């Protein structure tokens, strides 16, 4: 297997008889999946998603793939395939289309429906090509074939890409539930056919590659819900992901079986389920769905609320219920079911919500104490099946942190893929496949692109460092006006502190020291604004460090008069 | 069981024939455990620990129990019992002793040794009383008896408190490993004796009360370590908690069995293990321990590093190794064992370390993929044994978030404790036990006390809110000097932004608007500094909100000339 800790130079120009593969996101991270395939000067893109920020990126709304490599190649793009409708696969499409809005978007009915709703909010009218499993499409020099895969959202696709220089099978996100609610299984017969045709490079979902065994059936959750619904005495509130149509389907069925009405809560939940219902992916038992505003017309034991907020998002309905800040008041005997995963990093927020709900007397069911969630990703056991059915010549694990990519590569190795045909790469690495054999030939620049409010890519790592300093230490602002003829202060120093463990008055002590330091600097002819600001910064910094043992950001402004 | 969501008034004066119980920390949280027992005007304290901050408390070093209730009662304190030496039980002692340094501190040999080392750093010479299991002590009107309990640190004690108004058994933190390394089991015979004497109120550790079954044996980890050591080809690095003497003991034994030397890494690890060795709690196989600076004298396959940093703490040795910023360079074939829990909230930091180590070629073993950690707390099954052996008349779960306290209360209920004798309380609630029957009678003020640098309790919730705004949005500082006679600007506006997704120049557009707004205000006679600053704040705030869709902190300074 390749090693991660190497330095790579710029890649050579692409060989026209090679397929060049570059991931601009999704390697070394769970999210912002985006992979480019380049052949004979044309570029095919698979997925274009967002990554959600961590604590180390305060205030960031979203993180995008780095499109820089495409800057002068926008017209070479022949199409963008969206494997399914999750945000980490479609969320960055609006930002790519801002650069060229007529890139053909290929996807299944449900995927495109969700994508179009998103693009409408961005006022973008896209060019779309609806495809389904079994379909073939030609995009420039790429022949595509779409294969059904099962995932935690309906209508997901894998794509088989055929070129004169080799073939690539890209699974997208998938698992292999053998009894899915909609009967649409991952099409292993089609995987086998592709394998017999010959798969030179197999890109597979690594998310659960370090989880032993097999992902349980979605259907099993239905039985658990049935049982919980049978014993619930008052209201039931279920929280899950807003795109998890089958999870909502099972809630609707359990509700219907127990004579309860379901109201959807949360903007994205309402929007997605309306789309799913219109397109026939969600089958609502007659009379089961009601509008949230009619909930009070029914007794508590006839109500189910199906809500977002399963990750403890502070503004979501569930968090607001937990803190008593929502029109739905939680009380003794209510049953809350978190039918969702617990995404790493969200633990404290989720436990805060659980504690808040329990404090109000609710019975809280979650994956820690009942089988109310199954993952959407193939575990190690399923991936072994895939490798043995496809028998790829080479493998490139995608969609995962380093630990997941390595675990997935190890599974490929165990099924007989030679170590030197297992490509472990990072975002931006350039993998050239010549005569069907992949090799890392260099890397292109590929960083983090932060969306913050209306700005895209303007916030830098340095800004985030500033923010972390401000968060940890606060700041001290010092303003003064100096008579440059003699160094006397005409106004100030005015000192304001925020986020520092002291009130402004504590800083009165330092004011004479500042005046003295400024006067001395002027006498020594260090009297321009920059120099004087440095003097103030140093004087205050030393004092704060020594006396308060803190290192806040120090912001001096010297006005010269 | 009592309900949490009630408002409580100040308590009535204590009845001399009651035992008053007040937790100043440890209820509704995992940490800063501290419980007061008040009888006939005297106060006995059990534990005085710290809580570690979460993301919502940026820059905070520690959180202390709220000592306000003790402000005018310091002289009534007859003693402070420390059940064991973990930070969440002893960490706040220095801060309490700053208020009265001769409070008698009672604890076992190892607990007091760790505490004294800590107090020495704070330059405090304490009054200590060393006790051991079986000992009895009288402190004012309290008769105490100490019982051995097993925990993830040696020499932990429970305390049986007897007064004329009832008895209390407080477990401290504990579990019931039946084959502990030191043979020192939780003394259920003593628990049974206390039960026969009569336990009016039983305070029990709730940390793992929602975990079904039984906590596994510490000893089982030894076998797993043996197996890992047998197959490791290069260096082995084990990370765990710096006070986990038995975990380190097992590492030493596995190392010795495989001809490896062990070097301790991390200041607290070195200090605690020196103490443990001196007092005989750690038994070092002859010739096994070496100093870190001699590691390079041995081949890689004869070395074990025993390190701190198992929670992904960025400054700890392990994190620095993962980012290539430590003298120990990680390479292909190294084995890293995280023999520790994963404390909620630390997931991202720990996975960052794991990914970094794997990226460098290391094989990383952690509780997710091997049995290299067991908890130090009793699971639900063990707590049931306790309740059945003690048969308490009433129960008050301590040491846990709301979800843990409720789960623990439910276990008590299942063993037959009447619901109205299960006290679910919050920090500051006043529980009076009259004739052996506890009842919530009110609450005292009890908040969060933040330690930040050298300041204690000066940082407020408002400061933290400021910090979170600064973290999420950054700030904009605007400085200008105004001629108050006509509203003309004499200097500025100088605009500086930090942590905002734009550079300073973006703000040039707003400068004429500020000048105009200030001039207008002066003409309207709104010309004092506060009014003009408000004008500037509003002008900039509107512009930033509209144009950048951000809400940074806006810090205007107007100098009047």
UniProtKB/TrEMBL annotation, chains A, B:
Write out the similarity annotation. Belongs to the metallo-beta-lactamase superfamily. RNA-metabolizing metallo-beta-lactamase-like family. Bacterial RNase J subfamily.
What's noted on cofactor binding?
Binds 2 Zn(2+) ions per subunit. It is not clear if Zn(2+) or Mg(2+) is physiologically important.
InterPro entries the UniProt entry points to: Metallo-B-lactamas, RibonucZ/Hydroxyglut_hydro, RMMBL, RNase_J, RNase_J_2, RNase_J_b_CASP, RNase_J_bac, RNase_J_C
Active site residues of this protein: 205 (proton donor), 377 (proton acceptor)
- Main localization is cytoplasm
Entry-linked PANTHER family: RIBONUCLEASE J (PTHR43694:SF1)
The record's GO molecular-function terms, alphabetically, read: 5'-3' RNA exonuclease activity; RNA binding; RNA endonuclease activity; zinc ion binding
Q: Name one Pfam family in it.
A: Lactamase_B
**EC number from the UniProt entry:** 3.1.-.-
Role summary: An RNase that has 5'-3' exonuclease and possibly endonuclease activity. Involved in maturation of rRNA and in some organisms also mRNA maturation and/or decay.
Domain spans labelled Metallo-beta-lactamase: 31-231
Know the name of this protein?
Answer: Ribonuclease J
What organism, scientifically named, is this protein from?
A: Sediminivirga luteola
Among the GO biological process terms of this entry, one is: rRNA processing
Keyword Calcium belongs to the record: yes
Q: Which NCBIfam families match?
A: MG423 (TIGR00649)
Task: Indicate which residues the UniProt annotation says bind Ca(2+).
Answer: 59, 61, 452
